[in-house]
Write a structure and sequence with these properties.
3-stranded parallel β-sheet
Length: 371
């Protein structure tokens, strides 16, 4: 475990201890890095965080890297990581969401690794709601495995104070919800493709760079599904960010765009729903559609679940070029590719011990043939 963005310490240490115990109880060895300071918005200077993260990614004894949670400015590591060296290494599972999407998305698009857009470590003690799958289970699956997730039909509003309730392990899913199709075409959506995406507020800053160039993933020929979710910015900011991502081609080849439910605030005259429709052109009007050269206009849908991004489409086969060996499987000379954000073939697996860290749930993208 390392904190590429915000760390954990002080009053939140008790929750961290509960989360570490949850992973150890599953039989994993856990190594905690030095970049863990939670007194500010960053756990350590950028150079130290980059060195520790890269060291864990390249260490063959470490089977998964799971930050405690996201943060604000993980983008400061992008220029400090050796992406070419990472791309040549054996893949290691990296799990997280929010600001961690700033790192796991380039791990897929630049290095070709599968990753899991799922619970951060601090959320791992929660019991997995019915219909969903924990990252702790996903990382143990073998090559070609299938993960099926179905929406619980309910989600939660707000968060639990980990200082007051460090041992909380059950989500209060007290708000009903379901998928909503935003393009007004009606009917069910059944799509297949490689999944990639994450937090709008962080990923928008990578638009126009190779770190958010989705075309290599689309060119693999399996289709592309892009998922996005707003963490906290108001509707005008989200609208601007989505417009910028669209203009930079992020959604160009998407067969569908999946939009996570959010409680982020509206603007004075613009709701979050309207922001998505405005930016992505989810309407019948040809002039306002987000076009795709090979698949037609992408379909826009909103998701439901314990938090944005957990619940995905009816038939989403997620794939990437390479994926890590299951964290609990023995070393062997065949390939292995458990499901993740997106997955594909890989080189020789690494040793079985989860070794240095764990890996993260407020949303989880299963991958593989999730039908």
């Amino acid at each position: 475990m390392t904190s590429p963005s915000s760390g954990v310490s002080g009053a939140l240490q008790a929750r961290l201890d509960v989360a570490l115990a949850t992973v150890r109880d599953r039989g994993y060895q856990v190594v905690v890095g030095d970049c863990m300071d939670g007194s500010g918005h960053l756990s350590a200077p950028a150079a130290e965080r980059a060195a520790e993260l890269q060291g864990m990614l390249l260490d063959p004894s470490i089977r998964a890297v799971v930050p405690p949670w996201g943060g604000e400015t993980a983008i400061d590591l992008i220029g400090l990581l050796d992406w070419e060296q990472i791309g040549r290494a054996e893949p290691t599972w990296v799990v997280g969401f929010s600001d961690i999407a700033t790192l796991i998305t380039p791990l897929t698009l630049v290095a070709g690794w599968a990753t899991i857009h799922g619970n951060n470590l601090m959320d791992t003690p929660y019991l997995t709601p019915e219909g969903l799958v924990s990252w702790l289970d996903i990382v143990t699956l073998g090559q070609g495995a299938t993960v099926v997730q179905t929406p619980p039909g309910r989600h939660r509003r707000g968060f639990v104070d980990y200082v007051e309730h460090p041992g909380v392990d059950e989500y209060l899913l007290d708000v009903p919800g379901s998928w909503t199709r935003l393009d007004s075409l009606g009917g069910e959506v059944d799509v297949t493709g490689r999944l990639v995406g994450g937090c709008i507020e962080t990923l928008a800053n990578l638009a126009g760079t190779r770190y958010l160039d989705t075309s290599p993933l689309a060119e693999l020929g399996d289709g592309l599904l892009v998922y996005v979710e707003a963490a906290g910015d108001d509707a005008p900011a989200i609208c601007r960010n989505l417009h910028g991502m669209r203009l930079n081609g992020v959604f160009d080849h998407a067969r569908a765009v999946l939009v996570g439910r959010t409680y982020a605030p509206p603007g004075e005259t613009l709701t979050q729903h309207e922001a998505v429709v405005d930016a992505l052109g989810c309407s019948r009007s040809p002039s306002s559609r987000t076009s795709s050269a090979d698949t037609g206009p992408p379909t826009c849908r909103s998701s439901t679940g314990p938090s944005p991004g957990w619940s995905r489409g009816r038939a989403s086969r997620a794939s990437r070029r390479r994926s890590p060996e299951p964290a609990t499987s023995p070393r062997r000379d065949s390939v292995g590719s458990p499901p993740a954000d997106a997955w594909g073939t890989r080189r020789r697996p690494r040793p079985a011990t989860p070794g240095g860290t764990s890996a993260p749930g407020a949303r989880s993208i299963p991958a593989g043939d999730a039908r």
